[in-house]
Specification:
The protein is mostly helical. It has one domain. The protein has ten helices and four strands.
Protein backbone atom coordinates (compact mmCIF):
# COMPACT_ATOMS: atom_id res chain seq x y z
CA UNK A 1 0.00 0.00 0.00
CA UNK A 2 1.33 3.40 -1.02
CA UNK A 3 2.18 5.69 1.86
CA UNK A 4 0.01 8.81 2.14
CA UNK A 5 1.33 11.65 4.28
CA UNK A 6 -0.74 13.04 7.13
CA UNK A 7 -1.20 16.51 5.63
CA UNK A 8 -2.04 15.00 2.25
CA UNK A 9 -4.71 12.86 3.89
CA UNK A 10 -6.18 15.83 5.75
CA UNK A 11 -6.30 18.03 2.63
CA UNK A 12 -7.76 15.27 0.46
CA UNK A 13 -10.40 14.22 2.99
CA UNK A 14 -11.48 17.80 3.70
CA UNK A 15 -11.85 18.55 -0.01
CA UNK A 16 -13.91 15.42 -0.63
CA UNK A 17 -16.01 16.08 2.49
CA UNK A 18 -16.96 19.57 1.28
CA UNK A 19 -18.04 18.18 -2.10
CA UNK A 20 -20.11 15.45 -0.45
CA UNK A 21 -21.74 17.94 1.92
CA UNK A 22 -22.72 20.22 -0.97
CA UNK A 23 -24.37 17.23 -2.65
CA UNK A 24 -27.19 17.15 -0.05
CA UNK A 25 -28.89 20.51 -0.81
CA UNK A 26 -28.28 19.95 -4.53
CA UNK A 27 -30.07 16.60 -4.20
CA UNK A 28 -33.12 18.29 -2.67
CA UNK A 29 -33.34 20.76 -5.55
CA UNK A 30 -32.77 17.96 -8.08
CA UNK A 31 -35.63 15.97 -6.53
CA UNK A 32 -38.03 18.93 -6.75
CA UNK A 33 -36.91 19.59 -10.34
CA UNK A 34 -37.59 15.94 -11.27
CA UNK A 35 -41.05 16.01 -9.68
CA UNK A 36 -41.98 19.21 -11.57
CA UNK A 37 -40.61 17.73 -14.80
CA UNK A 38 -42.57 14.46 -14.62
CA UNK A 39 -45.81 16.18 -13.56
CA UNK A 40 -45.79 18.50 -16.59
CA UNK A 41 -45.76 16.12 -19.51
CA UNK A 42 -48.32 17.09 -22.16
CA UNK A 43 -51.44 14.93 -22.71
CA UNK A 44 -49.65 13.60 -25.80
CA UNK A 45 -46.76 12.40 -23.65
CA UNK A 46 -44.25 15.09 -24.65
CA UNK A 47 -41.85 16.33 -21.95
CA UNK A 48 -41.93 19.99 -20.84
CA UNK A 49 -39.24 22.38 -22.00
CA UNK A 50 -36.48 23.57 -19.69
CA UNK A 51 -38.04 27.05 -19.57
CA UNK A 52 -41.41 25.62 -18.55
CA UNK A 53 -39.83 23.67 -15.71
CA UNK A 54 -37.81 26.73 -14.62
CA UNK A 55 -40.95 28.86 -14.46
CA UNK A 56 -42.37 26.48 -11.86
CA UNK A 57 -39.09 25.55 -10.15
CA UNK A 58 -37.72 29.03 -9.36
CA UNK A 59 -40.79 30.22 -7.36
CA UNK A 60 -40.58 26.99 -5.31
CA UNK A 61 -37.02 27.69 -4.07
CA UNK A 62 -38.00 30.04 -1.17
CA UNK A 63 -40.63 27.55 0.00
CA UNK A 64 -38.07 24.72 -0.09
CA UNK A 65 -35.56 26.77 1.89
CA UNK A 66 -38.16 27.72 4.54
CA UNK A 67 -39.35 24.13 5.04
CA UNK A 68 -35.79 22.77 5.22
CA UNK A 69 -34.81 25.60 7.58
CA UNK A 70 -37.65 24.82 9.99
CA UNK A 71 -36.81 21.09 9.86
CA UNK A 72 -33.15 21.86 10.56
CA UNK A 73 -33.88 24.17 13.48
CA UNK A 74 -36.04 21.63 15.28
CA UNK A 75 -33.74 18.66 14.64
CA UNK A 76 -30.52 20.56 15.29
CA UNK A 77 -31.36 21.68 18.82
CA UNK A 78 -33.03 18.42 19.87
CA UNK A 79 -30.24 16.26 18.54
CA UNK A 80 -27.99 15.93 21.61
CA UNK A 81 -30.76 14.84 23.96
CA UNK A 82 -32.04 12.39 21.34
CA UNK A 83 -28.59 10.82 20.98
CA UNK A 84 -28.09 10.39 24.74
CA UNK A 85 -31.54 8.87 25.07
CA UNK A 86 -31.06 6.49 22.11
CA UNK A 87 -27.63 5.42 23.38
CA UNK A 88 -28.90 4.79 26.90
CA UNK A 89 -25.80 6.49 28.26
CA UNK A 90 -25.23 8.24 31.57
CA UNK A 91 -22.56 10.56 32.98
CA UNK A 92 -19.24 8.87 33.72
CA UNK A 93 -18.50 9.30 37.42
CA UNK A 94 -15.19 11.11 37.89
CA UNK A 95 -14.40 9.70 41.32
CA UNK A 96 -14.46 6.09 40.14
CA UNK A 97 -13.02 6.72 36.67
CA UNK A 98 -10.04 9.03 37.23
CA UNK A 99 -8.02 7.03 34.70
CA UNK A 100 -10.38 8.02 31.87
CA UNK A 101 -10.63 11.63 33.03
CA UNK A 102 -6.85 11.99 33.32
CA UNK A 103 -6.25 10.59 29.83
CA UNK A 104 -8.87 12.90 28.34
CA UNK A 105 -7.72 16.00 30.20
CA UNK A 106 -4.08 15.44 29.24
CA UNK A 107 -5.00 15.07 25.57
CA UNK A 108 -7.17 18.19 25.66
CA UNK A 109 -4.41 20.23 27.31
CA UNK A 110 -1.89 19.03 24.71
CA UNK A 111 -3.92 20.62 21.90
CA UNK A 112 -5.54 23.47 23.84
CA UNK A 113 -9.14 22.33 23.60
CA UNK A 114 -11.88 22.42 26.21
CA UNK A 115 -12.59 19.18 28.05
CA UNK A 116 -15.77 17.52 26.69
CA UNK A 117 -18.30 15.77 28.90
CA UNK A 118 -17.75 12.05 29.42
CA UNK A 119 -20.59 9.53 29.32
CA UNK A 120 -20.74 5.74 29.46
CA UNK A 121 -22.86 2.97 27.98
CA UNK A 122 -23.09 -0.05 30.25
CA UNK A 123 -22.13 -2.61 27.61
CA UNK A 124 -19.34 -5.20 27.46
CA UNK A 125 -18.72 -4.35 23.81
CA UNK A 126 -15.72 -2.22 22.82
CA UNK A 127 -16.82 1.03 21.22
CA UNK A 128 -16.96 4.82 21.60
CA UNK A 129 -18.33 7.90 19.87
CA UNK A 130 -18.27 11.69 20.00
CA UNK A 131 -21.32 13.95 19.81
CA UNK A 132 -22.45 17.51 20.42
CA UNK A 133 -22.96 20.76 18.56
CA UNK A 134 -20.84 23.22 20.54
CA UNK A 135 -18.45 23.45 23.50
CA UNK A 136 -21.34 23.35 25.96
CA UNK A 137 -22.48 19.88 24.92
CA UNK A 138 -19.50 18.21 23.22
CA UNK A 139 -19.41 14.69 24.62
CA UNK A 140 -17.27 11.57 24.35
CA UNK A 141 -19.21 8.41 25.14
CA UNK A 142 -17.41 5.15 25.95
CA UNK A 143 -18.67 1.65 26.62
CA UNK A 144 -17.84 -0.11 29.86
CA UNK A 145 -16.08 -2.79 27.84
CA UNK A 146 -13.66 -0.44 26.09
CA UNK A 147 -12.67 1.17 29.40
CA UNK A 148 -12.00 -2.15 31.08
CA UNK A 149 -10.33 -4.07 28.24
CA UNK A 150 -7.94 -1.53 26.69
CA UNK A 151 -4.65 -0.52 28.27
CA UNK A 152 -3.85 3.15 28.86
CA UNK A 153 -2.11 3.74 25.51
CA UNK A 154 -4.88 2.05 23.53
CA UNK A 155 -7.63 3.89 25.38
CA UNK A 156 -5.74 7.15 24.88
CA UNK A 157 -5.70 6.47 21.12
CA UNK A 158 -9.46 5.86 21.09
CA UNK A 159 -10.19 9.01 23.10
CA UNK A 160 -7.88 11.01 20.81
CA UNK A 161 -9.82 9.68 17.80
CA UNK A 162 -13.08 10.92 19.30
CA UNK A 163 -11.56 14.28 20.28
CA UNK A 164 -10.46 14.70 16.67
CA UNK A 165 -14.06 14.22 15.54
CA UNK A 166 -14.90 17.17 17.79
CA UNK A 167 -11.94 19.31 16.69
CA UNK A 168 -12.64 18.59 13.00
CA UNK A 169 -16.34 19.47 13.49
CA UNK A 170 -17.27 15.97 12.31
CA UNK A 171 -19.98 15.79 14.96
CA UNK A 172 -21.68 18.79 13.36
CA UNK A 173 -21.31 17.34 9.88
CA UNK A 174 -22.93 14.13 11.04
CA UNK A 175 -25.88 16.04 12.45
CA UNK A 176 -26.31 17.80 9.10
CA UNK A 177 -26.20 14.54 7.14
CA UNK A 178 -28.64 12.81 9.51
CA UNK A 179 -31.07 15.70 9.16
CA UNK A 180 -30.85 15.70 5.36
CA UNK A 181 -31.35 11.94 5.16
CA UNK A 182 -34.26 12.32 7.58
CA UNK A 183 -35.94 14.75 5.16
CA UNK A 184 -35.75 12.23 2.30
CA UNK A 185 -36.84 9.39 4.58
CA UNK A 186 -39.89 11.41 5.67
CA UNK A 187 -40.84 12.13 2.05
CA UNK A 188 -40.55 8.43 1.13
CA UNK A 189 -42.77 7.43 4.06
CA UNK A 190 -45.30 10.16 3.21
CA UNK A 191 -45.47 9.15 -0.47
CA UNK A 192 -45.68 5.45 0.38
CA UNK A 193 -48.58 5.98 2.76
CA UNK A 194 -50.36 8.14 0.17
CA UNK A 195 -49.96 5.42 -2.48
CA UNK A 196 -51.16 2.79 -0.02
CA UNK A 197 -54.16 4.89 1.01
CA UNK A 198 -55.04 5.63 -2.62
CA UNK A 199 -54.91 1.96 -3.60
CA UNK A 200 -57.31 1.06 -0.80
CA UNK A 201 -59.87 3.81 -1.47
CA UNK A 202 -60.06 3.27 -5.28
CA UNK A 203 -62.02 5.44 -7.73
CA UNK A 204 -60.82 6.99 -11.02
CA UNK A 205 -59.81 10.25 -9.38
CA UNK A 206 -57.96 8.40 -6.69
CA UNK A 207 -56.24 6.20 -9.26
CA UNK A 208 -54.96 9.25 -11.17
CA UNK A 209 -53.71 10.78 -7.92
CA UNK A 210 -52.16 7.43 -7.05
CA UNK A 211 -50.16 7.39 -10.26
CA UNK A 212 -48.81 10.81 -9.42
CA UNK A 213 -47.88 9.70 -5.92
CA UNK A 214 -46.09 6.66 -7.34
CA UNK A 215 -43.94 9.03 -9.42
CA UNK A 216 -43.19 11.08 -6.29
CA UNK A 217 -42.45 7.89 -4.35
CA UNK A 218 -39.97 6.65 -6.95
CA UNK A 219 -38.20 10.02 -7.18
CA UNK A 220 -38.09 10.39 -3.38
CA UNK A 221 -36.80 6.83 -3.00
CA UNK A 222 -33.98 7.44 -5.50
CA UNK A 223 -33.07 10.69 -3.69
CA UNK A 224 -33.18 8.89 -0.34
CA UNK A 225 -30.81 6.15 -1.50
CA UNK A 226 -28.42 8.71 -2.99
CA UNK A 227 -28.50 10.72 0.26
CA UNK A 228 -27.55 7.58 2.19
CA UNK A 229 -24.64 6.99 -0.19
CA UNK A 230 -23.45 10.59 0.28
CA UNK A 231 -23.85 10.33 4.05
CA UNK A 232 -21.90 7.10 4.36
CA UNK A 233 -19.15 8.27 1.97
CA UNK A 234 -18.73 11.42 4.07
CA UNK A 235 -18.63 9.34 7.25
CA UNK A 236 -15.89 7.08 5.86
CA UNK A 237 -13.74 10.08 4.90
CA UNK A 238 -14.04 11.58 8.37
CA UNK A 239 -13.03 8.30 10.04
CA UNK A 240 -9.73 8.31 8.15
CA UNK A 241 -9.20 11.94 9.15
CA UNK A 242 -9.91 11.21 12.83
CA UNK A 243 -7.45 8.28 12.78
CA UNK A 244 -4.81 10.53 11.25
CA UNK A 245 -5.44 13.28 13.79
CA UNK A 246 -5.30 10.83 16.69
CA UNK A 247 -1.92 9.57 15.46
CA UNK A 248 -0.67 13.15 15.45
CA UNK A 249 -2.14 13.96 18.86
CA UNK A 250 -0.76 10.94 20.70
CA UNK A 251 2.38 10.46 18.58
CA UNK A 252 1.61 6.76 19.00
CA UNK A 253 -0.29 5.41 15.95
CA UNK A 254 0.52 1.82 16.93
CA UNK A 255 -1.58 2.18 20.10
CA UNK A 256 -4.68 3.14 18.09
CA UNK A 257 -3.96 0.35 15.61
CA UNK A 258 -3.77 -2.11 18.51
CA UNK A 259 -7.03 -0.75 19.95
CA UNK A 260 -8.80 -1.14 16.60
CA UNK A 261 -7.71 -4.80 16.44
CA UNK A 262 -9.29 -5.47 19.82
CA UNK A 263 -12.38 -3.44 18.92
CA UNK A 264 -12.90 -5.36 15.67
CA UNK A 265 -13.46 -8.60 17.58
CA UNK A 266 -16.20 -7.24 19.86
CA UNK A 267 -17.57 -3.90 18.74
CA UNK A 268 -21.34 -4.37 18.29
CA UNK A 269 -23.25 -2.63 21.08
CA UNK A 270 -26.46 -4.65 21.37
CA UNK A 271 -27.89 -2.19 23.86
CA UNK A 272 -28.05 0.56 21.19
CA UNK A 273 -30.77 -0.03 18.59
CA UNK A 274 -30.60 3.30 16.75
CA UNK A 275 -28.59 3.02 13.53
CA UNK A 276 -28.00 6.80 13.59
CA UNK A 277 -26.13 6.32 16.88
CA UNK A 278 -24.40 3.11 15.75
CA UNK A 279 -22.84 4.87 12.77
CA UNK A 280 -21.20 7.36 15.14
CA UNK A 281 -19.18 4.63 16.86
CA UNK A 282 -15.47 4.25 16.19
CA UNK A 283 -16.36 0.97 14.45
CA UNK A 284 -19.64 -0.01 12.77
CA UNK A 285 -19.29 -2.85 10.26
CA UNK A 286 -21.81 -3.29 7.38
CA UNK A 287 -22.95 -6.66 8.75
CA UNK A 288 -24.20 -4.85 11.86
CA UNK A 289 -26.61 -2.65 9.89
CA UNK A 290 -29.84 -3.03 7.93
CA UNK A 291 -27.73 -2.83 4.74
CA UNK A 292 -26.30 -6.30 5.39
CA UNK A 293 -28.59 -7.83 2.74
CA UNK A 294 -26.69 -5.97 0.01
CA UNK A 295 -23.78 -8.39 0.26
CA UNK A 296 -20.94 -7.25 -1.99
CA UNK A 297 -22.51 -3.81 -2.42
CA UNK A 298 -22.48 -3.33 1.35
CA UNK A 299 -19.21 -1.39 1.11
CA UNK A 300 -21.05 1.47 -0.59
CA UNK A 301 -23.45 1.63 2.34
CA UNK A 302 -20.77 1.21 5.01
CA UNK A 303 -20.45 4.03 7.52
CA UNK A 304 -16.82 3.15 8.22
CA UNK A 305 -13.92 2.05 6.00
CA UNK A 306 -12.66 -1.51 6.53
CA UNK A 307 -10.93 -1.63 9.90
CA UNK A 308 -8.07 -3.66 8.38
CA UNK A 309 -7.35 -0.81 5.97
CA UNK A 310 -7.41 1.73 8.79
CA UNK A 311 -4.90 -0.36 10.74
CA UNK A 312 -2.57 -0.66 7.73
CA UNK A 313 -2.58 3.12 7.24
CA UNK A 314 -1.80 3.70 10.92
CA UNK A 315 1.07 1.22 10.69
CA UNK A 316 2.65 3.36 7.94
CA UNK A 317 3.14 6.37 10.19
Amino acid sequence: MQYIGIQQQITSNNRKSVLLLLAFPLLIFAMVWAIIFFFNFTPEGNPPSVNEVLELFIPSIPFILIVVGIWFTIAYFAHSSMINSAAGSHTLDRKNNMRVYNLTENLCMSVGMKMPMLRIIESPALNAFASGLNEKNYTVTLTRGIIEKLNDEELEGVIAHELMHIRNKDVRLLVVTIIFVGIFSFLVQLAFRSVLYGSMTGGNRKKDDGKGMIVILVIALVAYLLSILFKFALSRKREYLADTGAAQMTRNPMALASALRKISNNHHVNEVKSEDVQQMFIENAPEDTSMNFLGGLGGLFATHPPIEKRIKILEQF
